[in-house]
Amino acid sequence: MKITDYLNKEETRGFTERSDYLAAHTLLVTWLGIVLIFAVVDIWTNPFTIVMALILLAGRQLGLAVIEHECGHHTLFKTEALNRFCGQWLAARPVFGDMHSYSRDHSGHHQLAGTQEDPDLNNYRNYPVTTASFKRKVIRDLTGQTGYKLMHYVLTMAAGIFSTDAESRSRARPFVAEIAVNILLAIAIGIAFQPWMYLLWIGSFMTTYMLIVRIRQVAEHAAVPDLYDSDPRNNTRTTIPRWWEKLLVAPNQVNYHMEHHLMASVPCYRLKNLHQLLAIRGAYDETPVFRGYGEVLRHTVVTA
């Protein structure tokens, strides 16, 4: 597929135009959602609000990861300094990420999607999977086993800062920064709310966030029409979320993943409009577009 078959040059410029205002709005709404969740638990502390916080915070953490992703593509803000600062310190670091290394690795996914060399292939190449297999994955995520492996890696790499080897110290610095930002976040939460409430952030990250990230990966590329076709309409999926799914699995228009692969230069806040125009012009006439993540899971998780 050539995007020029469906968009003229003026339309392409419009969709790829970056806006500091829309970018700041995206970032602010994501963080306001986080503050609101903590405020509700602080005011009404009970088992229900705590459980809901563990679920809803994961969606906001994914929202930060999406912002990291967009800034890594240099597409969220028009001002490049804002992409670098906000993407790294206000989005990536709070969710134990490093935007610069992520961006380098992620570029390979875009270049090699639809081939056997796609570096992200292990996340979805074996789908569809059986119900029993997916259940084991869900249990590992929700019991913190997946999150523990990630946090163990972060802490192990950060410990390299004490090494006498200069290269080890250099590799450790991003991980030390991730931990430092989370210490500051814990202090800020402790000042604004109840000191123990940072545990909601880290608890959500190590459990529900891991499951939500898995579902997002499945929705984007698992059991697509042809994983080894260069056309994004065959190797990538767009999912139209229900309103509540936007809070959990599809923040900041991350669900329009096919459109992102068609035009990676389009900011996330314009992806929905791009999808709608391409649909009107027949770009998806022979492409399955799923309605809701439940439909995706029914397609990708099958009874043995």
Write the layout of secondary structure elements.
Blueprint: H1 9-16, H2 20-43, H3 47-72, H4 80-92, H5 99-112, E1 129-130, H6 131-142, H7 145-158, H8 166-192, H9 198-206, H10 208-221, H11 232-235, E2 239-240, H12 245-248, H13 257-262, H14 271-280, E3 290-291, H15 293-300, E4 301-302
Parallel strand pairs: 1-4, 2-3
Helix pairs in contact: 2-3, 3-4, 3-5, 3-9, 3-10, 6-10, 7-8
Précis, in short:
Helix content is 63%, strand content 3%. By secondary structure, the protein is mainly α.
Can you give keywords for this protein?
single chain; 304 residues; mainly alpha; two-stranded parallel ribbon; 15 helices; 4 strands; globular
Number of strands: 4
Give the terminus-to-terminus CA distance: 35 Å
Q: What's the mean pLDDT score? A: 96
Q: How many whole angstroms does the radius of gyration measure?
A: 20 Å
Can you characterise this structure?
With 304 residues, this protein is an all-alpha fold. It has one domain (3-302). Helices cover 63% and strands 3% of the residues. The chain contains 15 helices and four strands. It has helices at residues 9-16, 20-43, 47-72, 80-92, 99-112, 131-142, 145-158, 166-192, 198-206, 208-221, 232-235, 245-248, 257-262, 271-280, 293-300; strands at residues 129-130, 239-240, 290-291, 301-302. The strands form two sheets. Strands 1-4 form a two-stranded parallel sheet. The protein has a two-stranded parallel ribbon with strand order 2-3. α6 packs antiparallel against α10. It starts with 8 loop residues before the first helix and ends with a strand.
